Amino acid sequence: MTGWVFSIVDRLGAVGVGLLILLENLIPPIPSEVILPLAGFRARAGTLDLVAVWPAATAGSLLGALLLYGLGAWLGYDRLYQLAGRRWFVLASRKDLERGRTVFDNHGGKVVLLARFVPFLRSIVSIPAGATRMPLLPFTVLTAIGSGIWNAAFLGLGWLLGDSWDQIQGWLGPVSYVVVGLVVVGLVVLMVRRLRANRTELRVQM
Fold first, then answer.
1. How many CB atoms lie within 10 A of CB 96?
2. Is the N or C terminus of the chain more exposed, i.e. has fewer CB atoms within 10 Å?
3. Could you tell me which residues come within 8 angstroms of residue 46 by beta carbon, excluding any fewer than 6 positions away?
């Protein structure tokens, strides 16, 4: 993955970093934990302008979050609630949605801000935010703040540790696999949990 990220960044510069971070929001297994340190390293080497990379990365984060927010708003809570009642819908149950709506009604701002620092949640939190119609302005501001801090931290890490890049490359690969693995494990857990719930419902009906 590092070679692919380098090729995009070297070809498109700061715009490439922004596009990669946009994809990272829409396709969580593409981890920003890999993209941003690579961009910071390139900035340290003088092939990227760090002042341009940070806003480009943050704009990519914000655009991805707004697209997912729009998806959540288009689906709406009622439609998601109906989908959650289908046996094949493994991502959440109706009880999960009810609890999630309560949390968003009471602590939506905190959830959106803090989720920006958690892999995978950083992406999917935008969907329930849109579905519960969290006001767009605070959603946008809190997403920009959280994403901006996250991006700055990992860009700075790549910059500061540029002299030890050979060592960094050694652990960036495993980190990307760990992130992908966690996403897969999370999906499997959701599927198993939903299958058990379906079995329980069938027993109750019988």
1. 16
2. C
3. none
CA distances from 145 to 41, 44, 150, 176 (A): 23, 24, 9, 24
Any idea how long the chain is? 206
Q: Give the C-alpha separation, 92 to 34, whole Å.
A: 29
Tens digit of each residue's pLDDT (9 = 90 or more) over 134-161: 999 999 999 999 999 999 988 888 888 7
In the chain, where are the structural domains located? Answer: 2-205
> Which residues, other chains included, contact 178 with Cβ-Cβ below 8 Å and sequence gap of 6+?
none
The structure's pTM equals: 0.77
Short-list 13, 110, 17, CA closest to 61: 17
Calpha distance 175→31 (Å, rounded): 9
- CB count within 10 Å of CB 93 equals 18
